[in-house]
Amino acid sequence: MTVPSHGPIAGRVGGGPVTPAAVSDLISAHVVDVPDFPKPGVGFKDLTPLFADGPAFAQVIDVVATEHGGAFDVVAGIEARGFVLAAAVAYASGAGLVPIRKAGKLPRKTVSAAYALEYGEAVLEVHADAFEPGARVLLLDDVLATGGTAAAAISLVEQAGGEIVGFSVLMELAFLDGRARLGGREVHALLTV
Ligand SMILES: O=P(O)(O)OC[C@H]1O[C@H](OP(=O)(O)OP(=O)(O)O)[C@H](O)[C@@H]1O
Ligand SMILES: Nc1ncnc2[nH]cnc12
After folding, report:
1. Is-catalytic flag, 172?
2. Which of 4, 54, 3 is nearest to 26 (CA)?
3. How much of the chain, in percent, has pLDDT values that exceed 90?
């Protein structure tokens, strides 16, 4: 089978490496703050305008794909917004993709973890055989808020035999101190507010 080469990607921004400040500004310019969504008191960070802007999205994906030096075997994305990033980074880096899904969506044997997030509670699952033993996993999500989702996802990857070698988010809400839930694990956040 012939694997198509990535080649030039339409709409991609050229011009060499992007600085951390530039990518942070790019994300900042594309976030819409939505008060009281999905519950009163929550300030929701809507990143859909970033996903909708082809050149900006491509630039952000390139930064995430390269900031870990390609030293991962597989990308894991957290449903649902993490899928948007994980699929694009997996394609850009030539790595595979493992979906970490909300409960009841995966068809075979899973491991699962219940957790609380900023505005609710949920259960995440991953296929028990999703990772080769010792697979180097890059975990991706759009937002780190309280850290409940990320802590659950990290635990699932480890239970399923993967080794997390990187965890990146586009945006970290530092006032919610999600890092405190992650046991000192390094977090790459392209924008911190
Ligand atoms: O740090 P936390 O407080 O746990 O919150 C972060 C999580 O919240 C959002 O997901 P959500 O569960 O709203 O799902 P969605 O991606 O399906 O919208 C976001 O995409 C992160 O996964
Ligand atoms: N404030 C917020 N905005 C967007 N996604 C979130 N996930 C958890 N808290 C969030």
Report:
1. no
2. 54
3. 87
